[in-house]
Write a structure and sequence with these properties.
Blueprint (H helix, E strand, L loop, with lengths): L2 H14 L12 H10 L5 H14 L3 H5 L3 H7 L6 H19 L7 H4 L7 H11 L9 H9 L9 H11 L5 H14 L18 H25 L1
Helix pairs in contact: 1-11, 2-8, 5-6, 9-11
Length: 230
């Protein structure tokens, strides 16, 4: 994709969502790590409902390992895959205490070794908690990037991340991550994207395809109505 097209995409999203930000409620790096871990295959809204009470009860890693696993499971049972996530949280907290003095490590390569923390989670933590530029690729970022041809249809999540890092100026990585999420979450949705009013339709291969199919359907419906009248 041409540099000018990438700039057009970034500036348009910036105008649409100038206040884009991490929507997971947290007050420090540890809470953010727990929140992102919980958000896997779960909406941020649901996670925020759970962490309101969770972060009041559990303030530090030691708090999470001081209760039976079953109790923690009950505290997060509204979250999808809550049993596995509870195990990951307790294991993660034990490692933080044993190896990092109870603090979340700032290095990306250390974060990804923690239970339940993959590349996406690590990217979110380093960028939002420690100010290190990063692009975390979730379902929204992946979908939007492929529709706008910032990545290939068959690209893996890692390939999407690498292509975005190459196309987007480094100082804009974190902000672009948030804006891609907002664009995908509130505008370019998986099932019902707002193609008909999208300011990026000119560079969106998915949108052009959908609009073309829509015109074909309208023409067919019009032809059918005309035949019925005759």
């Amino acid at each position: 994709m041409k540099v000018a097209d990438v700039r057009h995409i970034l500036d348009t999203m910036g105008n649409m969502f100038p206040e884009a930000h991490c929507e997971l409620n947290h007050s420090n790096a540890f809470e953010l790590t727990i929140a992102v871990l919980l958000s896997a295959q779960c909406t941020d809204a649901t996670v925020n409902k759970v962490t309101v009470d969770l972060f009041q009860k559990y303030k530090a890693p030691l708090d999470y390992i001081s209760v039976p696993l079953e109790e923690l499971e009950q505290d997060i049972r509204r979250i999808g895959l809550y049993r596995n996530k509870a195990k990951h949280i307790q294991s993660l907290c034990s490692i933080l205490i044993e190896q990092y003095g109870g603090e979340v490590p700032q290095a990306h390569d250390q974060l990804v070794t923690l239970p339940g923390v993959g590349r996406k989670t690590a990217n979110v933590v380093v960028s939002n908690a420690f100010g290190v530029p990063a692009i975390a690729v979730d379902t929204h970022v992946e979908r939007v990037s492929k529709r706008l041809a910032l990545a290939g249809w068959k690209d893996s999540v890692l390939e999407v991340e690498k292509k975005l890092m190459k196309a987007v100026p480094r100082e804009e990585w974190t902000l672009t991550h948030h804006r891609l999420i907002f664009f995908g979450r509130y505008h370019c949705k998986a099932q019902n994207p707002q193609c008909q009013v999208c300011p990026l339709l000119d560079v969106c291969r998915e949108g052009k395809k959908r609009m073309k199919m829509s015109l074909i359907r309208k023409d067919k419906d019009s032809a059918t109505k005309t035949k019925l009248k005759n």
